[in-house]
Amino acid sequence: MLTDSHCHLASHRFQTSEVADLLERARAAGVSRMVTLATSLGDLPANLTIADDPRVHACIGIHPCDVHHAPHDAVLQLSAFTRDPRVCAIGETGLDFYHPAPEGWDDESLRECQREFLRRHFHLAAAAGLNIIIHTRDVTEHASFEDALAIYRDFHTSVRAVFHCFVGPWSNAMRVLDLGGLVSFGGVATFKNAREVRDTASQCPAGSFMVETDAPYLAPEPYRGMRNEPAFVRDTAEFLAALRGETLEEFARHTGATADAFFRFRTSIH
Question: Which of the listed residues 12, 39, 60, 231 has the most CB atoms within 10 Å of its CB?
Answer without folding.
Answer: 60
